[in-house]
Amino acid sequence: MTLLIGKRYEPILAQSLACQGIEVLWLPDNKDVDPRLAGHADLSVFVSDGRVVAAKGIYPSIVNFLTNRGYTVTKAQREQGPVYPRDAGLCVCAMGEYTIYDPATIDPAVMPLLCGRPVHVNQGYARCAAAIVDDHSIITSDAGVSRAAKNAGMDVLLIEPGHIDLDGYDYGFIGGASFKINSNTVAFTGNLDGHPDEGRIYDFLAAHGQKALILTDRPIFDIGGAIALP
């Protein structure tokens, strides 16, 4: 497996991921978004079935790497900016037969790549707000995302907001602090010891045949997730 992760997190996560046999393309900071979020992969790249949409702020630096591997890379159409929702055009949660996104913020270049049943939400950071457990299950602290996903037939664990570190902000999101590394494992950036829903999260994972991999001994923190290259 190859994952796309912000380069600023390489010193923290590289060793743990290498031990799992995972190759990582460390993405440069996206100069067009808030500096605190510049290393968040879910604001810079969207991937679907061998096709990639890259934010203008990182496009030149990754296009050769991806095209040499057979991916078709398209530049995002909209200019990003440092204030939400101008940074959220690529933050789309595509999983199995569902795609969770905000129609008001999605970049037009992503629309032709969408497949599966659309789940419309009023949360531009849809990818960051939803931790993917399997093709039909998520964990989220966003009540609106939870409600829309349940209405679409998904299985959802709604957890308490907060308790996830994000430098410069009051808190981050569970989807930005976790990512799938194989069909039955969800990796978390840090431990869940201080999270009030720790037990419920582990129970939900187990109920769906998933196990947790804790990558560091730090409290769980938001990195903008990791984007898998299929």
Can you put this structure into words, describing what you see?
The protein is α/β, with parallel strands linked by helices and 230 residues long. The chain has one domain: L-arginine/glycine Amidinotransferase, Chain A (5-stranded Propeller). Helix content is 19%, strand content 27%. The strands form five sheets. The protein has a three-stranded mixed β-sheet with strand order 2-1-15, covered by helices on one side. It has a three-stranded mixed β-sheet with strand order 3-4-5, with helices on one face. Strands 6-7-8 form a three-stranded mixed β-sheet. The longest helix is centred in the N-terminal third of the chain and has 10 residues. The chain is globular. The mean pLDDT is 97.
Write the layout of secondary structure elements.
Layout: E1 2-6, H1 10-19, E2 23-27, E3 45-48, E4 51-54, H2 59-68, E5 72-75, E6 93-95, E7 98-101, E8 117-120, H3 126-129, E9 130-134, E10 137-140, H4 143-151, E11 155-158, E12 178-182, E13 185-188, H5 198-207, E14 211-214, E15 227-229
Parallel strand pairs: 1-2, 4-5, 7-8, 10-11, 13-14
Antiparallel strand pairs: 1-15, 3-4, 6-7, 9-10, 12-13
